[in-house]
Amino acid sequence: MGRIQLGEFEEIVMLTVGILYDSAYGVSIKKEIEERQSRKVSVGALQTALKRLEKKGYLKSKEGESTKERAGRPKKYFSITAEGKEALKVTRDNRNAMWDAIPDVSFDLKISI
User: pTM of the entire structure?
Assistant: First the structure.
């Protein structure tokens, strides 16, 4: 595997796919992110991230059943691949290493006048 690099939004999308497990499709992912992160998510940004993560091999998709509510179009469900799980672990470990490297004095928030 090449260099692993996940952007913040990509990481959030992948974590949300993991949280939703068998229920991870566009609308459910969008709603979950908006509820958990208290931030608006555009459909376009989400679809772009999902396609990019699938192209990287971190997510895979499969079509579900067609429904009347969706004019006969099937939902596209996403799941995390083994490579995606590894990318999330590397991202978490890198982030934790950075946090661990911050000296305590950096967070000594004294106001100077």
Answer: 0.85
